[in-house]
Each structure stands twice: as C-alpha cells, then as structure tokens.
Amino acid sequence: MNGLSQRIVSFIAELLPIYTYQFADGHDCALSLIDGTLIMPLDESHAEHEEGWVAVLWQGDSRKRCETPGNLLASQAILRHVELHGVGEPHDVLLARRNEMIECFRQLTGTTVCLESIPPQASAGLHHST
After folding, report:
1. Distance between CA atoms of 105 and 107, rounded to whole angstroms?
2. Exposed end of the chain (fewer CB within 10 Å): N or C?
3. Taking residues 52-59, what's their average pLDDT?
4. At CB < 8 A and 24+ separation, what contacts does 119-126 make?
5. Do 114 and 76 touch, CB atoms closer than 8 A?
6. Residue 64 pLDDT exceeds 70
7. At residue 34, what are phi and psi to the nearest 5 degrees?
8. Around 19, how many Cα atoms within 13 Å sit in the side-chain half-sphere?
9. In what order do the strands lie in the sheet with 27-32?
10. 3-state secondary structure of 43
C-alpha cells in the first residue's frame, strides 16, 4: 500500500522518540512508544478521491478501534514532537520548527495538517512567557 493513508502513517512513524515503525497485519504502521497505540493505514484505493483516513487501535487493542482522518493525528503528533524537542527553546524557534514540520508533511503526503489556522501562541506546548 502506497496511498495517502500509508504516507501519513509513515510520516507519523518517523517522529521518534514518540512513535516508531511497527509491522502489523501486513502493513507498515506507526506505534506510539508512549501508550502502545497503533496507527494503521487504510486501503482507500476504491475511493474516487483519497482522504487519508487511518485506523487507530488504542493501546494496540483491536477492540478499541476507530477510524479518523490521518491529518488530524499528524497535527497532534507534530505538536507533541515539536514540544518534546523544543524544551527550553524560545517561542520563535518552536514556531519555526513547527512550520518546517508542517511543510515537510505537505511535501511528503501532498495534503495539509490542521495547524495552519491555529494562531502560533494557541498551539499546545508552544506558549512562551514575556
């Protein structure tokens, strides 16, 4: 599988040390190293237009499965990644890093995340004191 859903999952899996790759049910998936949640690509080849939906198995439990737009998960993953790697950094550095990751996501997947409309200081973990 090499569709939009897989590209989104692969992007998330690269966000070490929060996520890593996990091969499950014949798919390259993203595994949360925080809580064991597994993010799996969905086959959208039958759809007229790929939307990038992914399956989420909370704590890796197939009984706790839901499907969601992958760009929503990627948005949260980017924020957490920037927050983790930006501890102690000034706000402008965090904002630049967040914008770089947003652009990287767009280039790798061909779609956007849900962060562009969030004012920089409203982004979780990206607050600064004056």
Report:
1. 5
2. C
3. 96
4. 120/91, 120/95, 121/91, 123/79, 123/98, 124/79, 124/83, 125/79, 125/80, 125/82, 125/83, 125/86, 125/94, 126/79, 126/82, 126/83, 126/86, 126/91, 126/94, 126/95, 126/98
5. no
6. yes
7. -90, -50
8. 26
9. 19-24, 27-32, 38-41, 53-57, 65-69
10. coil
- Indicate the domain borders of the chain: 4-115
* pLDDT tens figures, 41-50: 999 988 899 9
Q: How far apart are CA 83 and CA 95, in angstroms?
A: 10
What is the number of helices (H) and of strands (E) in the chain?
A: 3, 5
Kindly state the tokens that stand for 123: 């982004």
The whole-angstrom separation of Cα 52 and Cα 111 is 9
Given the structure tokens 């197939």, which residue do they identify?
Answer: 62
